[in-house]
């Protein structure tokens, strides 16, 4: 019992900022709650395979970092990031370390980019569908989304060329490699056109590339960032901003990722990050630095191999067990594939029936900034055993057959 003076009960919701009130719970997080029943085979979450985590190597690297740096490994450090890690990333990309900003997960990079680039009402072009987490990051800054059509080869660049004149778009956000959610890859031919088109129209191009290293089939295509570098001739003139992460190649829990950008963008990212968290955890950056030379390439090889096998099996089982009329993407890497069911099938409404059959997926609609895609769904194969894939796809096939028979 309170013994102090009587005070009014605050309406806390009413005191939230308009920005906070514009945020909404991730549809996926809500869905994952339903799908996380213990006996349900879940293709819903986009989790890396934990049995592949390099446990011993991270243990060794942690001790090595503590020995190498002493208390400095546990001290505050610079906002830009651990210099040797920035050097290493810069060397990989052929740019100075000064064009690299370490961030606490590429999710933070997206939030900070939203903060420094998007004013209320700015036109932000996004793929349809796109990564839901980017929509969540940008939303509080008040973008006006315009969806760019996509097909099997990623962004339809000619449709984009028709959209751009007069649009005064600020940013185009794209995931060109093994996109989350579709698993599609932007074809090599379209990349150059996309970079040139956005440059011509003064549109900043955010290339979000957490999966690029995880190609298990097909030929690698140049990054949009590298094409931008070629076009402009200098990293400080590049209109492409590149974001990548160690989450999918090493481990997600260390929250180590980075942004490559021109000096004026980096300068603002530093200021924005200071306000957000001062710096990415020092020890985590040092651990990753210990690992990049030898462990990272081996780990990438392992993960690629495993995900390639899992994707291959999932596609085989889809071909064997799914009814006619279900379209699927064939990813060349990454963690996801995408199903399109005949018009009129609502994958959100279908989910409880799939869960009854002990299988789960993510309905596709939340991945569309402006709605649509009710007949689509995302499947993740990265965190499933062969048995789970075989059983789960059979159960999903039965669910889909039931829905199509109605
Ligand atoms: N971008 C994309 C396209 C993603 O799929 C993810 C992870 N799901 C992220 C960014 C965020 O990754 P992280 O913060 O772990 O680097």
List the topology elements.
Elements: H1 12-15, H2 18-21, H3 27-35, E1 41-42, H4 55-69, H5 83-93, E2 100-104, H6 106-117, E3 123-128, H7 132-138, E4 144-151, E5 154-155, H8 157-163, E6 169-174, H9 188-200, E7 204-208, H10 224-232, E8 240-245, E9 256-260, H11 263-277, H12 282-292, H13 295-321, E10 327-328, E11 336-340, H14 347-356, E12 359-360, E13 362-363, E14 376-380, H15 386-405
Helix pairs in contact: 4-12, 6-7, 6-11, 9-10, 13-15
Bound molecules: 4'-deoxy-4'-aminopyridoxal-5'-phosphate.
Protein name: PLP-dependent aminotransferase family protein
Pfam families: Aminotran_1_2
Keywords: Aminotransferase, Pyridoxal phosphate, Transferase
In short, what is this structure?
By secondary structure, the protein is an alpha/beta fold. Helix content is 43%, strand content 15%.
Could you walk me through the main structural features you see in this protein, from its secondary elements to its overall organization?
- By secondary structure, this protein is of the alpha/beta class.
- 43% of the residues lie in helices and 15% in strands.
- Helix 4 packs across helix 12, helix 9 crosses helix 10 and helix 13 runs parallel beside helix 15.
- The protein is globular and about 60 Å long.
- The mean pLDDT is 95.
- It binds 4'-deoxy-4'-aminopyridoxal-5'-phosphate.
- InterPro entries: Aminotransferase_I/II_large, Class-I_PLP-dep_aminotransf, PyrdxlP-dep_Trfase, PyrdxlP-dep_Trfase_major, PyrdxlP-dep_Trfase_small.
């Amino acid at each position: 019992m309170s013994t102090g003076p009587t005070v009014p009960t605050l309406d806390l919701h009413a005191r939230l900022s308009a920005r906070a009130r514009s945020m909404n719970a991730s549809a996926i997080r809500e869905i994952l709650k339903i799908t996380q029943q213990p006996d349900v085979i879940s293709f819903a979450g986009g989790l890396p395979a934990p049995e592949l985590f390099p446990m011993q190597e991270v243990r060794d690297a942690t001790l090595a970092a503590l020995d190498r740096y002493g208390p400095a490994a546990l001290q505050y450090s610079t906002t830009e990031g651990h210099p040797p890690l920035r050097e290493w990333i810069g060397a990989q990309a052929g740019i100075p370390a000064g064009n690299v900003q370490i961030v606490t997960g590429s999710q933070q990079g997206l939030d900070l980019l939203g903060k420094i680039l998007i004013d209320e009402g700015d036109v932000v072009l996004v793929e349809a569908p796109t990564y839901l987490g980017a929509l969540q990051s940008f939303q509080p800054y008040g973008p006006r989304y315009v969806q760019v059509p996509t097909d099997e080869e990623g962004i339809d660049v000619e449709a984009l060329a028709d959209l751009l004149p007069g649009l005064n778009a600020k940013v185009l956000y794209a995931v060109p490699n093994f996109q989350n959610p579709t698993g599609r890859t932007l074809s090599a031919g379209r990349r150059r056109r996309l970079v040139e088109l956005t440059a011509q129209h003064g549109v900043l191009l955010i290339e979000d590339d957490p999966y690029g290293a995880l190609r298990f089939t097909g030929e690698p295509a140049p990054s949009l960032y590298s094409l931008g570098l070629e076009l402009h001739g200098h990293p400080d003139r590049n209109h492409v901003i590149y974001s990548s992460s160690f989450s999918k190649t090493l481990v997600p829990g260390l929250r180590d990722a980075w942004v490559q950008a021109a000096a004026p963008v980096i300068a603002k990212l530093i200021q924005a990050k200071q306000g957000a968290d001062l710096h990415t955890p020092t020890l985590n950056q040092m651990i990753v630095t210990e690992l990049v030379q030898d462990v990272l390439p081996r780990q990438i090889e392992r993960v690629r191999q495993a995900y390639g096998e899992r994707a291959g099996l999932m596609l085989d089982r889809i071909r064997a067990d799914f009814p006619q009329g279900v379209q699927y993407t064939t990813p060349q890497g990454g963690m996801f594939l995408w199903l399109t069911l005949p018009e009129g099938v609502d994958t959100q409404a279908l989910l409880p029936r799939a869960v009854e059959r002990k299988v789960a997926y993510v309905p596709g609609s939340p991945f569309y900034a402006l709605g649509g895609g009710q007949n689509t769904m995302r499947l993740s194969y990265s965190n499933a055993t062969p048995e789970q894939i075989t059983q789960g796809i059979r159960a999903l096939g039965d669910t889909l057959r039931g829905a199509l028979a109605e």
